[in-house]
Specification:
Layout lengths: L1 H23 L2 H16 L4 H8 L6 H8 L8 H8 L2 H25 L3 H12 L8 E2 H11 L3 H16 L9 E2 L12 H7 L15 H14 L9 E5 L17 H6 L3 E2 L14 E3 L9 E3 L1 H6 L6 H15 L21 E4 L5 E4 L7 E6 L4 E6 L1 H7 L19
Antiparallel strand pairs: 1-2, 3-4, 3-6, 5-6, 7-8, 8-9, 9-10
Helix pairs in contact: 4-8, 5-14, 6-7, 6-11, 7-11, 7-14, 8-9, 10-11
Length: about 400
Amino acid sequence: MGKILNLKWVGLILLLCINLAFANNPPAFNIFLKKLASVAQQDKISTDTINQYLLTATYLPDVVQHDRYQPEFFMDYKKYVPLFVTKKRIQEGQYFVHNNHLALYRISQQYHVQAQYLVALLGTETNYGENMGNYSAISALATLNYFDNRHKFFESELLSALHILQDKQVPNSKLTGSWAGAMGQCQFMPDLYLQYGVAYQHIGHPDIWHDTADALASTANFLYQIGWNNHETVAIRVSIPKNVSTSQFGRFKVHNLAYWKKLGIKPYKKNCSLPNWEGPLAIITPSKYSKRAYLITKNFNALMRWNSSYLYALSVAKLASSIADSVNFDDSNNPALLPPAPHIVVIHIDPITHIYLIEKTLWKKYLFHFNHPMVTMTGFIDNKQKQQSASPNLLRAEHFSQELLKQK
């Protein structure tokens, strides 16, 4: 009898939630959700899942604004790329590599994707997991499905999100992401999560929100499955002879390297040669009237699966190149060194544990260095852990040079 009463209360609460959501939504949106319910039923979504998650979706006006005013629509290369490739983001990417170098090495080797591109994608998409978005994926996708002209795409993604909830892979409270419905550190759309998500070091469903290894492995798996070539990079800026028609430009107008060389295509930088790429190559310009031109590989198109913008793909490529210039991705026994820092201020040194606690700076967490005759570790802790580990024996120091981090 008690169970029956409990079920009745659950039903009443659910009905109240649906009524509240409907009351706050535009009437036309509510009618749209009811139509979607029949589509969801045809896709084998249960009535309980529809009532609990779809019919309680909320119309999000700011999602509409974000969709209409994306930076790719009105910025050129000189304005767009500096937004994503900054000195701070490059440095934070170097720290990210330092803290995840072993997982990066193994994942890169397993999936045949250069590590710098995995790092650059997470850096561009979420600033290395810092800004994943807190929009309800269901509400964001329902809103986009309602007003955006890509109805079929967002309908498919919404159905995939409902399947994730129905299969209890992720609870609704955690199924969050950007205004566009992209989720986790790697900003996967729901369909990509279902197809390519990887639970890398644990049993269960992929956790691309909180498990960095899962986010990296899922990203690498997706790139590998769609044909990433780890023997090539993404793009190189080139000079175009005046007699070459722009009608030959476009990311799907591909030819081999010999063809482009015959037309007189050369690197933009002097005293350089074109890479010996063997795959199909194309030439693009970032925007219609841009004077810049790039020779691109098929990896360029793979990056555009996150964002169908030339500027976006060029930004990821530039960030990857900038990070790769200062760290070593190729040796699992040689952790990537922190970037040069002439003066790093030490907050505490514990003479017993030999733990050096360094100030909170660009990487948003405190760096510690454990230097002991038996073991050496370097890592990051947050402010809460710092407060818990504080002891009266910790001594204050003035400066801590980069050389100390290299001690064994």
